[in-house]
Design goal:
CATH architecture: 3-Layer(aba) Sandwich
Mean pLDDT: 86
Order of helices and strands: EHEHHEHEHEHEHEHHE
Strand content: 5-15%
Number of domains: 1
Helix content: 25-40%
Bound molecules: magnesium ion
Structural class: alpha/beta
CATH class: Alpha Beta
Strand order of the largest sheet: 6-7-5-4-1-2-3-8
Number of helices: 9
Low-confidence stretches: 1-9, 211-215, 222-249
């Protein structure tokens, strides 16, 4: 694969919710043996990586704050996820997680922007050139509020319920993806740019966005380096670098 020749085709960064988007949503998952990739997820992510995208997890993990499991348990689960993705040649560039509960008043629990801001500053991400994929209204709001160029709701996990909550049209028949009409999208800042049946469909849709939305002209071609780490905007934000392997250069 030649990543350098395809850098203008797709969003350069894809932020991924974890539970219900990449892996099966096990309520307050704390056991690495319970980490199970959703069908097609690894293949979809592999296609994004092959096209030059960097992948980031942004995950709310209030089970830590609620005392259901420890931060070490989370890291063990994420390491297992890294192993499973590695079998498909996929690695995550970085992982951000929020350990707080909904009443903790933190700035990192989605839809709050803390995890976006820290990943943006750490990796030199550009909003218009970044995608968010998730299965809850909070994921959609997180991406839309940050002004990300591509926000996709998947129908795996809690996605069906999310689509009903938002009232957004879903794919019909054999269609893998449905895009709201532009006028509807403009009127509904809480809607995603697309609803996809699963992560594989979301990845395929993103791969098909070549030059169709905000592109590199808006974002430039910033040379980013994981070594240019800035501290997070808040002591509440927890960022861990890499899961199990180094970022491809
Ligand atoms: Mg989720």
């Amino acid at each position: 694969m030649n990543r350098a020749s395809t850098t203008i085709a797709i969003p350069r960064a894809v932020l991924l919710d974890r539970d219900g988007t990449v892996i099966e949503d096990r309520h307050y998952l704390s056991d690495p043996s319970g980490v199970t990739l959703l069908p097609g997820a690894a293949q979809g992510l592999a296609a994004l990586v092959a096209a030059g995208a960097r992948l980031f997890l942004v995950t709310n993990q209030s089970g830590i704050g609620r005392g259901y499991f420890t931060e070490a348990d989370l890291h063990a689960c994420n390491a297992r996820l890294g192993e499973l993705l590695g079998e498909h040649g996929v690695s995550l560039a970085d992982t951000a997680f929020c350990p707080h509960g909904p009443d903790d008043g933190c700035i990192c629990r989605k839809p709050a922007p803390g995890m976006w801001r820290t990943l943006r500053d750490r990796h030199g991400l550009c909003a218009a050139d970044t995608a968010m994929v998730g299965d809850k209204p909070e994921d959609v709001a997180f991406g839309r509020d940050a002004g990300l160029g591509h926000v996709v709701l998947v129908l795996t996990g809690k996605g069906q319920a999310a689509a009903r909550t938002l009232g957004v049209p879903v794919p019909e028949g054999d269609a893998p993806v449905r895009e709201p009409a532009p006028a509807d999208l403009a009127a509904r800042p809480d809607w995603p740019h697309a609803v996809a049946r699963d992560l594989a469909a979301a990845a395929a849709w993103l791969l098909g966005r070549a030059g169709s939305q905000a592109g590199p002209g808006e974002c430039g071609r910033t040379a980013t380096s994981a070594s240019s780490v800035s501290s997070g905007p808040s002591g509440h934000l927890h960022i861990s670098t890499d899961l199990s392997r180094s970022e491809p250069s």
